[in-house]
Amino acid sequence: MLPSEVMRQVRRIQIRTSRMVNEFLSGQYESIFKGQGIEFKEVRSYVPGDDIRAIDWNVTARTGEPHVKVMAEERELTVMLLVDMSGSGRFGSVNRLKNELAAELCAVLAFAAIQNNDKVGLMIFTDRVELYVPPQKGRKHVLRVIREVLCHEPKGKGTDIASALHYLNNVVRRRAVVFLVSDFMDDNYADALRICNRRHDVIAATVTDPREEELPPVGLVNLRDAETGTEVLVNTRNAAFRRAYAGEAETARRTRDENLRKARVDVMNVRTDTPYVNEIHRFFRMRERRMR
Q1: Which of 1, 15, 53, 236 maximizes the CB count within 10 A of its CB?
Q2: What is the largest CA-CA distance in the chain?
Q3: What is the rounded distance in angstroms from the CA atom of residue 52 to the CA atom of residue 8?
């Protein structure tokens, strides 16, 4: 993709996602993600009913009047976007590729974060970690993150979620909000995901295309695995084959969902054939209800 084309695409994404953040998500975002803990805010005079454990004895002794410490939630967060760029992401049968959907989803989350003065970082992975962008603040930084997601040319084709999560735990020491954006076409990541979710607040954003779940009866089709390169010619008019294909896809989906459930991570399910804004709203409302 040429630099001019990239900038036009980044600009289009910025316009679409900024409007969504400003109109719908900014207040919800702040309410559903906790800060790092409690920090000191100020000292004020004691009033009846204050917790005596909050008395600042040094100020009280110096002034001769009782004073208490006022604490506040530390709001600043670190948001990490872990984006799967394996070969299976370069697929889409509807309006966009799965990778393009992932980029726009990341833009929404990143703009919501910087609007609340949070830091945003990026990790792109395949069967290896290919790019790490340390968390920073600011619109200029977020635009760089979007460009990287759109333009990165992956070296690997496979998927290794566990390695990406291990790398994250090594480089991001403070607790972060982690959006793992992937189609989860991988095995053996459940333990790593569970461990990572103990340290961080992990949200799994699953990216799916309808043709990964079922095939239409269109005759002979050459199917190619984007990660292994394996090709097979199939007759999609064969009802038994289509049932078997859909059955394997359903088994894979159930396995994925069970892995995510066991790891106790929250989930957003985005699809190339439906507006992702509906799923983001559902996710934010679910988190809001749980925080009450």
Answers
A1: 236
A2: 89
A3: 59
pTM as predicted: 0.82
- Token readout for 63 is 């002034």
Name the domain count of the chain: 2
Neighbours of 197 (CB within 10 A): 20
Q: Does 265 share its domain with 125?
A: yes
pLDDT band at residue 239 using 50, 70 and 90 as cut-offs: very high
Of the pLDDT bands very low, low, confident and very high (cuts 50, 70, 90), residue 252 is very high
The one-letter amino acid code at 275 reads P
Domain that holds residue 218: 3-32+75-291
Tens of pLDDT, residues 79-101: 999 999 999 988 888 878 899 89
Do 57 and 171 fall within a single domain? no
Q: Do 188 and 49 have their domain in common?
A: no
In this predicted structure, the answer to whether residue 2 has a pLDDT above a threshold of 60 is: no
pLDDT given for residue 74 in this prediction: 54
Do 216 and 266 share a structural domain?
yes
**Whether residue 57 is found in the same domain as residue 145:** no
Closest CA to 88 of 185, 180, 163, 181: 185
Q: Are residues 118 and 211 in the same domain?
A: yes
Q: What is the pLDDT of residues 108-139, one digit of tens each?
A: 899 888 888 899 999 999 999 999 999 999 98
